[in-house]
Amino acid sequence: MSVSKKIVLLGHFGVGKSSLLRRFVENTFSDNYVVTIGVHIMKKEVVVDTSNKVTLIIWDVEGTDDFTKYRPSYLMGASSFVYVFDASRPVTYSDLKYNLAHLKEKHPNVPVHIIGNKVDLVDAEEVKQALNEQEVQHSYLSSAKTGENVEQLFKDVAAQLLENA
Length: 165
Description:
about 30% helix; P-loop_NTPase; alpha/beta; 5 helices; Small GTP-binding protein, Ras family; globular; Rossmann fold
């Protein structure tokens, strides 16, 4: 089976959404910060198993501190959300529980994967502890710079989408 699914990357400014996307699609990384204005869309086919492929159409949406301000047209039709936070900046995940509740209220049938990026800059155990204190179950801690867990995240998203298809 081969299907196409829309994935939306969400998160604060500067958390590394675009870097994760470039690492996954192009296997590249740059330290140069470029602000995403509006939305940037890329796609990549993921082979889940010998008979199943998913083309992920990934929307890299501009960052915002207020999740209620995302344009509904960016989120409409999403099959999955990937919520990205910066593991080195607690302010980007201090309101994670609130933002997740907002997403679930507005899009109750869309799964959310939570990924802490820039784990190469921090003690991962401290980040895990902070998330546990918020009672938030993260999906992954990753690094777009090193590639840690980036490929696995998107493969798991694709596999889940096939299960729900």
